[in-house]
Structures are given as C-alpha cells and as structure tokens.
C-alpha cells in the first residue's frame, strides 16, 4: 500500500497529523467496532506543495485512482470529506468550514472534487477560523474517501444536549435522504430526545417532535446533490420509529464511549440505509451550556477532589466509572430527596478529569443550603478540600421555615429506614457473599446475564446509597450543639464523645486482626510461616497445618471480610480472599498490640467528654445531646456497613467479569483484567456476541494505555469551571501550600480529638505503612478502610485529603486516635522522622 493511502487500520496508527481529525476519528471507531462504512484516507502529505487552483499533482492522482480501482469504486458514487489535522478535535470542530463533496462518480469528477476540498482550506472563512483559534495550515489537509451511503434517512446525534448542557439527555435530529439539508439548515427535521435510565443502562425515548421536513437532500443525476420537495404525506410521518430512535441512541452512545469513556459529549453524523445505521463522522462537542442551578450561574463551579481523593485516589477504569458515577450521584442526592427537596433534574455531581473523580462542590454546597439551610462553609468542612465557599444570600424567614420543615420530614422518613437497615444490611451482605461462592454459569450469554444482574443490583441499591451518603446529619447537629455549649471545643469534644461504643464493621475488622495477631503469637507453626521471607501468601491453606488455630481463625476472617480489598472501590483491585498478603503482613505488624488498652482509652475519653458536655449544657438539652450522640454513632456504623455491602456486590461482579475475560483470552483480550477497561454495556454486548472480541480487545488496550498516562498526571485539588463558559482548568495554587504557615505549622479539619507528639511516618500506600514503628504520627494522602490496621499502631493520623465524614475520620474517632484531615500540602513539606505535634482538637500540626 502506498504511504499516501491509509486504510482504517493505517489511519488509526498514523494519527490526526497524517489522517486528519475526521479520518482519524472514523478510523478509530472502525477499529473499535463502531458501524463505520468502508473507506480510506488520502493522507495530508498528498496536498503539500500544491497552491489553490492548481490541478491535483500527478503522484496524488495516481495513488488515489489506483486505490479506487483496487476497491472497484471508480464507478460507484463516492463521498470525499475534508479532514484537516485539527478538524473534529476537542478544541476545533471546523464545522461547515471545509468542503465535503457527495455523489462523486468517475475519475475526472473525483479529481475535481479532491481539488475543491483541498482549496477549501484557503477560503477566507477557513483562514479566519484558524486565525481565531491560533492554528496553522502547514500540515496540509487529508481527505476521507468513502462510497456514498444510499441514505433513506440521515441526521445528527448529540450525546448530550449542547443547548441546556444536560448530560443525561441525548438529542437526535433526523431528515429524509442525505444529511446535507439538515446540516445546512435547509430542512427542519424531526427531533428525538432520549434520557438516561441508569437502572436499565439504557436511553429510552423521552420526547419526540415531528418537524416539517419540507425538503430532502438527494443525489443528483449529474453528480453532487440536490434538494427535492418531500411528499406531504411522508413529511407528516416521523422519520424514525421510537424503537429506531432508541436503537440509534445506543449506537451513538457506544460510539462516544468508545472514543472517550469519561463521558465527553460528541456530535455524530449518521445515516440509515434501510437495513442498518452507519456513523459517518464524530467530533467532540466543543461548546455547550453550563447546566447548573440558577443561583450558581454567575459563580464558577468548583470541582473538588476533597472527599473523593480518600477512597478514589487513582484514575478509574471504564467499568469502575460506570458504577462509580451512579453511586456518587445517588449518595449525594438521596438524603436531600428524602427531605422532600427536589434536586435539579440531570444536574451532574461527579465527573472525571484526567481519569480522577471530582465532585461539583458548588452544587453540593448550594443544595445543602437551599434544601436544609446548611451554611456553604459547613458543607465544605464535611466535603474536605481547599475550594472556596459559594456565595449564598441570607435565608428569609419563609426559607428558614421550609428548612425546618424539611429537616423534620427527613428525620421522620429516615428513622424507619435506619431501623429497617439493622436487619436489611446483614441480609444484603449474605446475598452478596452467596454470589461470591456460587458456581459460575458455563455459557457466555448466561455469564453476561448474571453480571448484568449483579451490576444493576449495585446501581439500584438506593438504600445503601442513602446510608452511605447521609451519615452526617445527626453528627453535624451534635457538633453544632457542642460548639455552642463549649465554644472552640466543638470538634475535639464531639470526636471524644464518638470514641468507643459498638464498633462499626471497619473497626470490628481491625479488632479481628488484632485477635488474629494474638493467636499467631501463640501458634508457633503459624508464626514461623508468617515471618518467613519465602512465604507464599496465596498458599496459606496448604502451608499451615490443619490443626493450626490461626489457620481456622484466618479462614473465618476471610469469610467475613474477604470481599474487601485495598482501595476496594476499584473493581480491578484483587479482593483479600484472592490476595491475602496485605492482611497477613498486617497480622505480623499487630503482634503485641493491646486491644484492651485501646478500648479502655476510648471509653475513658468518651466518659470525660460526656461529663464536660453535661456540665456545660442546660438540663433540658442533655436528653437531646444523648439522642444525637446515639444517632451519630448509629449513622457512622451504618455508613461503614453499607460500604461493606456495596463492596461485596462489587466483588461478586468482579468475579463474574473476570470469568468472562477468561473466556475471551487470545480471541481479542490480552489478559482477563482487560474486562475492567470495558464499560458494562460493552461487557454485556461481548457476552451476547454483539461486540466482536477483537474490537473489545482494542478498546481495552487503548484505555489501559490511557489509564497509565492519567496515573502519571498530577491531579489538582480543585478544577474551576468558569461561570461565563470555557474549559475547566486547575485552580491557581497559592504561593504556599494550602494550610501551611511560615512557622512550620499546618491547619486542617479536626476529625478526632486529642494530642500526640512523635516522629512522622509518611506512607502513600497501606503497604508502605506496614513499616511504620508503633507510636508514630501516620501521614497519608488519604485512607480507606484498608488502612485501619495502621491506625492501631499510630499515635495520631494526619491526612492531606478527606473531611469530617471521611472513613478515616469515622474510624479514628471510634478508636480514639487524634486525627486531623484536609491538611493541604503537608506531604510535600514533611518527611519520615520529622517530629510533629498534633493538636487534633484545634486542627493543627506543628513541626517540633
């Protein structure tokens, strides 16, 4: 093949500089299994050196005509479409700027059309467009060559609504014949609006508007196209049936996700030939409205990593984001809905930037204020992160009454849910654990059906999302009450009050590890094996004798907690039942730890805090404080329990997905783990035979590379989306890392009271933390439940990320360990061995 003629595979490898933006996107889609017609690209290099108005150079003529002869296309009507290097990119669409020629037949017509497409790069409008965007034309212009689709209907699909900015809605415009009349505004086609139904992983039709469709664009007998009147009877009928619109929506959504699973909106041209839909062009939507509450339209959106960095520190794969975005959305909205507040439909609360999860802190602050009267600054403290508080007007008396009414409604509705959760949570956990032990189906389609059931169970777990996302209502009120009674001591006293009590599932997991360590210390065979440098953790069942007390206890531990993992929200991370090495290292690390002393310290801290608060409160507020404390502890326990159940469901889905990956090894997937780089709908399509294994493997390989690139990219704490529009950008950092003072002190959010002084130990992963000497100040970027064993040896905890409701904060309060979270920038300034003084009550950390 000549280097100037690129088939789809060659165009995909050559990239946009050679194949142009349009040609490269089409080539990518063709390689990834999107229904793209056959075609090729005449590389941009073929146009170099030619001036406008000159004939096509002989070499370009030769290779182009030879490519058409080889394919038998010289007598077929063709489409020649411009494909400049920057065209159809995220920063420049070039929509309507360069020329495309349709219904081109014969050698002479093809060469004339090629010259016209090349010449369109020098038109005044093209020059003005490039000048406005600061682009040049030095790379030439490639041309996509395809047989003309004999379109019965065609049009445009937007995978988000660019006018409103809603990303849960898709717009399809359809017209009879070719799409030229619709794109040029010469015909008023039908409009179909689809809205996402995440519980079905589908986009059902939400509304349909039938346009006039007075004219259609059709191939002309002499070449090119012509407008023709549409018969009145036909013009009155919808171009697409409801089923066809939904089917096209699925194809458009799949094409957009194939190109970018993070969810960027795409503008796609499509055609229907009477048998199937074809995608003819795809470009990112370069300009869309910012969809938010009216009160926030004059303020920027602050996308924050504050709370998500704790449990989601890494970039997310395609399958992880499929579940993660729904979980985040429901966790952050279900509690407000319970109060009777109606959130703005379709408003986006979570998004991926460079693969990392960010929350729209502006929207979350506004909803907290608008629904319940929570001050934006207080909402920020719960979220964590250095984003500023939004501006909110002082509430009117009528608004205060509405806030009070919603709070009462929330309490009235939440109470039975929490009571029912006491019996539901064990039942749901048992169901998920049973899935983990059930035999897997033999047939691929049945395995796909099981995976679909498990995945949709996660997406529909509103009870769990409520328990996870609404675990701070009573705690925030208790904190407010304590602060009023004991000014300046609210965080410290409240944290001390929360120490001890009935442990959460995460604290119980820590205590169980301490019990395992005690057993191991008394089990000589187990201790020798645990401390062996040649220990094979995966072979613990074979290595330990059957009579070993530690072996039986460890098996029981895995039965209760083996569905969990280090950073367990990531489906791609092995569960402890698969890879128990970290647990076994933790057992060795905890030998000698005194659980009794830990519990006694917690109980004493809680007792002293209650005595102090009781003395400061009026007698009529003491029963309220006691009820709030009881409710706060219950909320914290249920939040951790709900997380454990969700993780168990994810573990079951992980097992089914890996089994599906094993079935396609060597047929397209390079490794079984490739399944985590496919979306849920792609996995179902793979199992059902609707997505070719080769295309699935290409999607997975592309995303694996992308994930590696993201992993090496820093993730700023805050990304600002301007109020006036424009691309989101990282917030400008302060001259000094947030939270640090010139005197070597840092300030954060108090999460658990107390004081401690000791050497710092910096750990960026739980495995690194296993080297921490007992009594150290543990410094971590974030913590999830897998870090809990380290808390049991630490004198205090300091986290860069997290808020008052973070998992690390909840468990630190239970254990009675001083903890300060959201201490921005401290890991850049402190090294292991530096002596620190932590005043958790005041939220300060000071280098001694």
* Count of helical regions: 30
3D shape? elongated
Low-confidence stretches: 734-740
Q: How far apart are the termini? A: 70 Å
User: Structural class per helix/strand content?
Assistant: alpha+beta
- Radius of gyration, whole Å: 31 Å
In the sheet with the most strands, the strands line up as 19-26-25-21-22-23-24-20
Percentage of residues assigned to helices: 40-55%
Mean pLDDT value:
89
Strand content: 5-15%
Number of strands: 26
Largest sheet: 8 strands, mixed
What's the quick description here?
The chain is of the alpha+beta class. It has 30 helices and 26 strands.
What would your notes on this structure say?
Helices cover 45% and strands 15% of the residues. It has 848 residues and is of the alpha+beta class. The strands form five sheets. An eight-stranded mixed sheet has the order 19-26-25-21-22-23-24-20. Strands 9-8-7-6-12-13 form a six-stranded antiparallel sheet. It has a five-stranded antiparallel sheet with strand order 1-2-5-3-4, sandwiched between helices. A hairpin with a 5-residue loop joins strand 10 and strand 11. Helix 11 crosses helix 12, helix 13 packs across helix 24 and helix 16 packs antiparallel against helix 24. The N and C termini lie far apart (70 Å).
Helix and strand topology:
Elements: E1 5-7, H1 8-14, H2 16-31, E2 40-42, H3 58-71, E3 78-83, E4 100-104, H4 107-119, H5 124-133, E5 142-147, E6 153-158, E7 169-176, H6 180-183, E8 190-195, E9 205-209, E10 215-219, E11 225-229, H7 232-235, H8 242-259, E12 266-272, E13 277-284, E14 301-304, H9 308-311, H10 318-338, E15 350-353, E16 356-360, H11 361-372, H12 376-383, H13 397-437, H14 444-459, H15 462-469, H16 473-485, H17 490-497, H18 505-522, H19 524-530, H20 540-543, H21 549-561, H22 581-589, H23 595-616, H24 622-663, H25 680-688, H26 693-711, E17 718-721, E18 729-730, E19 745-747, E20 749-752, E21 755-762, H27 766-769, E22 777-780, H28 788-791, E23 796-799, H29 807-815, E24 819-821, H30 826-829, E25 835-839, E26 844-847
Parallel strand pairs: 21-22, 22-23, 23-24
Antiparallel strand pairs: 1-2, 2-5, 3-4, 3-5, 6-7, 6-12, 7-8, 8-9, 10-11, 12-13, 14-16, 14-17, 15-16, 17-18, 19-26, 20-24, 21-25, 25-26
